[in-house]
Amino acid sequence: MQLSFPHRETWLHAVNPGLKVIFLTLMFVLVILIHNLNVMVNVAVVMLLLLCWTGHPWYRLLLYASPFILIFISTSTGMMMFGKGETTWYKFGLIHITEESFYRGLHLGFRSLSMAAAGLLFGLTTRPVRLFYSLMQQWRLPPKYAYSFLAAMRMIPILLDEFQTLRYAIRIRGTQQRVSHWNVYGTLKRYAIPLLAQSIRRAERMAIAMEAKGFADGASRTYYIRIGYSWADLWFVLYFIAFLTIAYTIGWAFPYYPAMLDVR
Fold this sequence. Notes:
By secondary structure, the protein is mainly alpha-helical. The chain is 67% helix and 3% strand. The protein contains 8 helices and 2 strands, in the order αααββααααα. It has helices spanning 17-33, 37-50, 58-82, 99-125, 128-137, 143-173, 184-212, 231-253, and strands at 88-92, 95-98. The longest helix has 31 residues, at 143-173. It is flat and about 65 Å long. It starts with 16 loop residues before the first helix and ends in an 11-residue tail after the last helix. Keywords: Membrane, Transmembrane, Transmembrane helix.
């Protein structure tokens, strides 16, 4: 089953996945600690600019980002309409839009957009194999856990294929017509038991195969794929340091709205 689209590899694909995890995790922490709306807007722009180097066309990026745009709208409007504040702009029933709640809503929306952009960047530019090889080689993750995660990820499309095959088999046999659509337990049992049995058998065979191949604690291993550091990692680090510093400086020195330096 094809779960990804063809794309062009850029310098972001060459960045060490372990380094990418560290910097994006620090990015999450930084975004949570920012309470200046002006800085938050600049940080969101910095993260969105990185999506231009993912190697995917703009229409596909819009498709991937559509759920996050919906989250941006929902979180912003929720805070705007039901927040608290003193300067009332509009009030009708339960809806109470104030100046303070409006800017808090924008701040919350841009915060969620920055986090979504970071997650989307990591997902579009990181291969699972390179990620776990990096964790094994640079961060000393035990191979049995890394390869177990890789095997589990490989089983996801197999499980989806089996689910589709099971649906077709039930439809051909006419079993679905004799069961009510409202019988959730019957539907769950009809699909869950065969899929669970197949997964248990496959997991047992995989565990025996991994044990036979020597995936045990304390065993020294060699790697065909070597993950190291390159100039792409340096550019990645410099991009974050330089542009986040610029975003912070502009947000405080030249604010778009001076009254919103702290939205708490």
